[in-house]
Amino acid sequence: MKRNEMREQAFFLSFESLFTSNDEINELIELYSENVVPVCDYAREVFSGVAENKDKFDETINAFSKSWKVSRLPKTTLAILYVALYEMEFVDTVPENVAINEAVELAKKYASNDDASYVNGILGAVSRSK
């Protein structure tokens, strides 16, 4: 499985988790594995990391967003940002520019061009602040 496909799995799981409690993380992985395709280790790692760091990522998004705060963002955009922020902070094998570009591509595919621009702006600002 290609890295972008693994990232997409992590996005799907992160998106779904926005509608459930953190107690159901393993159940979501199991349901996805049974009904779609088995969840790869990378997607499992990213998804679990997103769940553990969601509050931190919310603070980051709110700090860098000039217009929309987390509570007003579309769930797809939020899940994309979570996955990218996790990769940027915790995955050494993924360069930040790759994480940003892949997040923008996910936004183009599953959200809108406006969302893709927003994702690019937030993640670019986070990257420049380091």
Largest sheet: none
Instruction: Kindly state the number of beta strands.
Output: 0
Radius of gyration: 14 Å
Q: What order do the helices and strands follow?
A: HHHHHH
Relative strand content: under 5%
Q: What kind of oligomer do you see? A: single chain
Could you say which overall geometry the principal axes of the C-alpha atoms support? globular
Structural class estimated from helices and strands? mainly alpha
Describe the structure.
There is one protein chain. The protein has 130 residues and is mainly alpha-helical. 75% of the residues lie in helices and 0% in strands. The longest helix has 24 residues, at 41-64.
List the helices and strands and how they pair.
Elements (H helix, E strand, L loop, with lengths): L2 H15 L7 H11 L5 H24 L10 H16 L5 H15 L2 H16 L2
Helix pairs in contact: 1-3, 1-4, 3-4, 4-5, 4-6, 5-6
Please give a quick description of this structure.
The protein is mainly alpha-helical and 130 residues long. The chain is built from 6 helices and no strands. 75% of the residues lie in helices and 0% in strands.
Provide the descriptors you would attach to this structure in a database record.
mainly alpha; 0% strand
